[in-house]
Amino acid sequence: MIAMTGSTQRNVGLAIAGGAAIVVLACIAVLAADMIAARRQASLDDQRLEDLVELVKTDAAAAAELDAEHQRQTDKSVQRELRKTRVTWTLILAAVLFLASAKWLVSLRAQRPPTLNTSVALRAPPPTRPRKAGGDVRSHSAGGPRVSELGEQEIDLSFVDAIVAKEGCDGEAAVPILQAIQAHYGYLPDEALQRVCELTEIEPSQIAGVSAFYARFRRSPVGEHVVKVCHGTACHVTGARQITEEIRRHLRIAPEEDTDPERLFTVDRVACLGCCSLAPVMMIDEETVGRLTPGSACAALDVVRPEQPA
Ligand code: FES
Q1: Where does ligand 1 bind, in terms of residues with CB under 6 Å?
Q2: pTM listed for this prediction
Q3: In degrees, to the nearest 5, what angle opens at C-alpha 284 toward C-alphas 283 and 289?
Q4: More confident residue, 137 or 152
Q5: Do the Cβ atoms of 31 and 84 come closer than 8 Å?
């Protein structure tokens, strides 16, 4: 198979999508024109048949002409239906081709180099992890970052070495490698991403593009507890938005963040959790809490939260 560059693939995709779109429009135009013409012709044909029927009443010799007219109109109608079927199938196939090429173009966009800022962010040395005063911060993942005596998270990069050895070093391995890193650490640590760039042909720009495109990739660690607030229909109408806002305020979560400063709680909005009769509902880790009010939601979090020093 001939390897194509990204821009060639985009041009091929655009050509296919453009051609398919033209065929779709042409088919729609043919069908519309046929329909209008058929309507006009139908009234003329009806009139012609009525005239012949009247004529046959006074002149029996006109019966043959009436039969011939019947036959002509039937043949025309059959031809019209045949053409309509062919054009409809062409329209369907062109529409499918258009959608497939459009989807392909969208997937190619995911491989576009990200903005300069994102690339620079990846090349920059990793930021110092916030230290936690007292206590540690655990990760949900068994293989997640450890916490040093100073409270800083230490990333064990041997997992990255192993996954690169398993998945390979070319650009196509980017997604499986990132998925494995995300599953192992619970997010994509900067140190791990830099290690990937050192070991493979994968460019920082490609990593930035992939991790930005897939919403499931996190660039910061999750909190010790994951809180899923249901925003399905039943929960939405019974106050899910107010509950989320109150929880975020209670945990002092910054506007663009989803995790509190102590990294104890990560708050997610999720779709229906499947227990609508208890709406509004949230889950704290694996435990479901229902019939919430903003106050009771915060109280449920306080039960989980370790005692604050006086
Ligand atoms: S809508 Fe929230 S549990 Fe179903």
Answers
A1: 230, 232-235, 272-276, 279, 281
A2: 0.45
A3: 50
A4: 152
A5: yes
